[in-house]
Design a protein that fits this description.
two-stranded antiparallel sheet; 5 helices; Arc Repressor Mutant, subunit A; 2 strands
Length: about 120
């Protein structure tokens, strides 16, 4: 799918466009990108994610981690120690997604800086 604005551009319901929309909606869900960013910054254990993503409930964090695992963006590893340790890390696809999103992060920082400059 390419983004076109000229007449004859692909319909938004074509498979490529639908796939793009599904991905954007997944990443745009409340807390999802914050969880992915926390994983990129080194969070591994549930408590580390909870600490990194201020304001998220334990129930919602568990749900989002499960969703991200099901989508193939996170890997869940169980270490059979006492007590059992469960680690959540970005999968290769999760790392790739975060690399792709980096220009968006950069853009948002520039935009925030421009907005702050205009208020001065």
């Amino acid at each position: 799918m390419t983004i076109e604005s000229a007449p004859g551009s692909p319909a938004i319901f074509e498979p490529g466009c639908r796939s793009f929309q599904d991905t954007v909606e997944l990443v745009g869900r409340r807390w999802t990108s914050a969880i992915l960013l926390a994983g990129r910054r080194g969070a591994r254990r549930f408590g580390e994610y909870r600490h990194a993503v201020q304001g998220i409930s334990d129930r919602l964090l568990a749900q989002r981690l499960k969703e991200l695992e099901a989508e193939g963006l996170m890997t869940r590893t169980v270490i059979p120690t006492t007590p059992v340790q469960i680690l959540y890390t970005l999968s290769q696809e999760g790392e790739e997604l975060m690399s792709i999103l980096q220009p968006l992060v950069d853009w948002s920082h520039r935009r925030r800086g421009q907005a702050a400059d205009s208020l001065r």
